Amino acid sequence: MSADFVSTEVTSSADGAFYRVAPIEDFALNELHSVEIGGRTITMVRTENGIFSFGSRCPHQGGPMCSGSIHGTMLPSDPDEYVYGQDGEVIRCPWHAYEFSIRTGESIGGAVRGRVPVYQVDVRDDVVYASLIRIKR
Amino acid sequence: MIRVYIDQDLCTGSMVCESITSQVFVMDDDGLATVLENGVALADGGAPLGAVVQPDLLALVKDASAACPGGCIHVVEG
């Protein structure tokens, strides 16, 4: 699969390298994008809560996260209650529908061992910059 | 000489590699995989040089590389 955006333009910060990706208006709401930076492919999405960047492969069996979808999820609740929440904060892998937080990379409900790597993002002058700097859990 | 290292930028911490051969792969304090050389866990996943793979472990290392969901195990010659 070819990347939606390819960036080789690097800017530096105190934390490390950031790559200019695209103007923020190129990121349609809740649409997943495959982005190539630093020789690696990551996934980025703009939601109502901001821009998020994370790994392109599912921790379960390596499914392509950029072909997944953004949702909420069912929250822990009392018996016979169904509570939907975290809308726009969860990515669902297209292969086996495992879900992960796009903020932390953690598996929803601890269903899968491991986590999706999540990376720092910067937005300056309405331009999105991606990095491979992992957000520590 | 065959070497192996982990690209920790992409590691998902699934522990698949360690489950295939704990003689080569181990999880570090951040929950990410790294490689062992002479029984010592290398920093930063052993990148970019890598740890030397003993010939009798090469098949297992290749299996781990193929099975790794993050695609972050690099087996290199040199």
Describe this structure in words.
The complex is a heterodimer of chains A (137) and B (78). Chain A is built from no helices and 11 strands. Chain A is globular. In chain A, 0% of the residues lie in helices and 49% in strands. Chain A has a single domain (5-134), classed as Rieske Iron-sulfur Protein (3-layer Sandwich). Chain B has a single domain (2-77), classed as Alpha-Beta Plaits (2-Layer Sandwich), CATH 3.30.70.20. Chain B contains 2 helices and 6 strands; from the N terminus they run E-H-E-E-E-E-H-E. Chain B has helices at residues 16-20, 58-67, and strands spanning 2-6, 25-27, 33-37, 40-41, 51-52, 73-77. The model of chain B has no long low-confidence stretch (mean pLDDT 96). Classes of the chains: A mainly beta (137), B alpha+beta (78). The A-B interface holds A 40, 55, 57-62, 112-117, 132, 134, 136-137 and B 7-15, 30-31, 68-71.
Number of strands of chain B: 6
Number of spatially distinct domains of chain A = 1
Helix percent of chain A reads under 10%
Ranges of chain A where pLDDT stays below 50 over 5 or more residues in a row are none
Physical arrangement of strands within the biggest beta sheet of chain A: 1-4-5-6-10-11-3-2
Name of the level-1 CATH class of chain A: Mainly Beta
Structural class of chain A: mainly beta
Helix count of chain A equals 0
Q: Tell me the CATH architecture of chain A.
A: 3-layer Sandwich
> Tell me, what's the shape of chain B?
globular
CATH class of chain B, named: Alpha Beta
CATH topology category name of chain A: Rieske Iron-sulfur Protein
The chain-level structural class of chain B is alpha+beta
Q: Radius of gyration of chain A, rounded?
A: 15 Å
What count of structural domains of chain B? Answer: 1
SSE string of chain A, helices as H and strands as E: EEEEEEEEEEE
